[in-house]
Amino acid sequence: MMKLLTTSALCAVLPLAAMAADKPETLKIGMTTFLTGPASVFGVPARDAMDIFVANLNAEGGINGVPIEVTYIDEGAGAEALTSEFRRVAQSGGAEIMLASISSGNCQTIAPLAEDLQVPNLMWDCGTQRIFEENEYDYVFRTQGNATSEMLAAVAYLLKTNPDFKTIAVVNQDYAWGRDSWDIFHTALEVMKPDVEVVGEFFPKFGSPDFSTEISRLQALRPDVILSTSWGGDLDTFVQQSFQRGLMNTSTFVLPLAESSLERLGPSLPAGHIVGARGDHYFLHPERRDDADFQSFMEQYKEATGDIPVYSVFHASQAFAAMQAAYEKAIADNGVDWPSEEQLLAAFEGLEFQGLGRPLYLREDNQGVESQLMGTSAQTGDYPFATLENIMIFDGDGLLPPIGETSIEWIKGLDASFVDTLQVETYDN
Amino acid sequence: MNLTIFLLALFDGISYAALVFIVALGLTLIFGVMRILNIAHGSLYAIGAYATVSLTGFFLALGFSPIFAFPLMIISAVLVGMLLGGPIEWLLLRRIYDKPEVLQLLVTFAVFMILEDAQRLVWGTQPYFQASALQALGNITLFGVTYTVYQLILLPLVAIGLLFGLRFFLRRTVIGKLILATTEDREAAQSIGIDADRVFLFTFIVGAVLAGLGGALASPTTSILPGMGADMIVLSFAVVATAGLGQIEGAAVAALLIGLGRSFAVYVWPEVAVLVPYLIMVLVLLIRPQGLFGSPVARKI
């Protein structure tokens, strides 16, 4: 008996002795985010939030006693500066894990680079669905959904709330996201509601300061629904100009990224338009707003920035939670003080974690499964800006293609019954 | 294309052209007189917009009526001209008038970069929106399409006013004649007692005020955010180059051409709307390298 115990103890300890890493003084992480340029409307809030997450965890003693130190890399400096900075932070900077990035283009550049450098990388905010559909990665994980789940939730919400619309027009930014998101949305609409007519497709240039002509044209066309997946200053300008000229009284707007503009738009986003949040991200999340951790973060964030948090803050919380969960899982599973890289990577397999929204998990292809929150704008007077009512939170599982299939091909095989197969919870506000 | 659509595109094109013209006017004035292509013009435009938004927000919070936004636009534009335009000419440009054009271009480009970062320091990176002035004037409906009075009527009126005002000022007033004389031949003007330094300073301030005014007038219609200056300088340069550098009336025609081209493209072939201003510029420059109204003398740039 004694012999058996010793043997099994040895068997358990031996591989660990070979694999466990020394506990570092600090856990260095690198995060790419937009600190300059138009996308800093997402990047700066995410950085501010990250500072809070790191300070909170370090106050509790960090991960297994190891405090966290984060280095930020500006995505606004361009792809070349980004890759060289990424390389520097991951190699000579000694970062054990990287969080990159916001821009889909940057994610596509960084994913193979992280694989080359053999540094675990969490794609924390970029939308493109192509990453795991076109390639396989061992070091790259996505701690959020992707464009497919986001657009399908928007289509599903539209079909559930406005089942009778006949015409639609689109006004998207002229770059990869604007084109790809319309591609997904349009393909889904064609199979789920084939009788809808697309009466106008506009792709004004990215950063366009004026949509007056498009708005005149839309007023002449009078579509039932106007879709825009624009964000930041472009979305603000488009909504403001549409509001000023009464276009929002005659058409229902579908704005899958408008959660991030609610506060800035103020009274200019009238009631009755569809708002999305790139996941279940909303400062009044109906399932989370009464939780202590959610409330205390909202207060901390308000104190630090004076604003309400937008979706990129939630995405940062998810990446941070995934990182913490992976380290803790690897430490517990292997009974070590600090995991080796292999142990850490193994811990990401099927990892479950929870940021400020619902719990998420990683699929076998390293894609995160994230619930999607959609709602309708309402001006209640409780805030000086629009909040959401008739909120639906779609379960993320049904919104992604099976592993190994590409989104567009999968969507082409769907039909009108798809919307009824989705798991959804509905809340009045 | 029926008549309604034609008229709608015409209205959109005119109101867009009006705004572009106001900004291009300052750029072409400075070039015409001083022979300097001022890239920092784009920053002055952006700062004019930011200043208007901040001032308007401040005064509205104090309980002033929204109509008060209009004088604040003019105040912002004048502040931009005096506080930024003046020192730029006096401290920097004055030293490089006899230096190569490339250096002049680089210096104004450097000022542009510095001012872009200064904006970020002062106003941050989040977009601002302040539309009180536009809302105060209300809407007007034509052929079932709602326009804002501000864009459809006020902006073109201001543009026309500035065009004729500047023409009158240059040709009929003493200071204007001094400016024209200095433009014609700086040394000869100095030899008859014109203080060319003061003429240049004054011209640059007027140009900077026009840039700031463009930004101030644009502010109620668009999000104010980093990078807006870069877009505007490219577009107004296209207008100025199409017209012929230094051509004030030409800039009005070129702005109309580009504005109308763009709005008709949105109706007919939206995919190329972005390209239209530059296509027009390329076509014009291929046929007339000196621009529509430029005289074919050797230019510095």
Structure description:
The complex is a heterodimer of chains A (429) and B (301). Chain A is of the alpha/beta class and 429 residues long. Chain A folds into 2 domains: 24-145 and 290-362, Rossmann fold, CATH 3.40.50; 148-278 and 373-427, 3-Layer(aba) Sandwich (Rossmann fold), CATH 3.40.50.2300. Chain A has helices at residues 2-19, 40-59, 79-90, 104-117, 130-134, 147-161, 176-192, 212-221, 232-244, 247-250, 262-265, 292-305, 311-334, 341-348, 407-412, 418-421; strands spanning 27-33, 68-74, 97-99, 121-123, 140-142, 167-171, 197-202, 225-227, 252-255, 274-276, 352-354, 359-362, 368-369, 372-378, 387-394, 424-427. In chain A, the strands form 3 sheets. Chain A has an 8-stranded mixed β-sheet with strand order 7-6-8-9-10-14-15-16. Chain A has a 5-stranded parallel β-sheet with strand order 2-1-3-4-5, sandwiched between helices. In chain A, strands 11-12-13 form a 3-stranded antiparallel β-sheet. In chain A, strand 9, helix 11 and strand 10 (274-276) form a beta-alpha-beta unit. The termini of chain A are far apart. Residues 13-18 of chain A have low confidence and may be disordered. With 301 residues, chain B is mostly helical. Chain B has one domain (3-287): Orthogonal Bundle (ABC transporter involved in vitamin B12 uptake, BtuC). Chain B contains 12 helices and 2 strands; from the N terminus they run H-H-H-H-H-E-E-H-H-H-H-H-H-H. The N and C termini of chain B lie far apart (41 Å). The model of chain B has no long low-confidence stretch (mean pLDDT 91). The chains are: A alpha/beta (429), B mainly alpha (301).
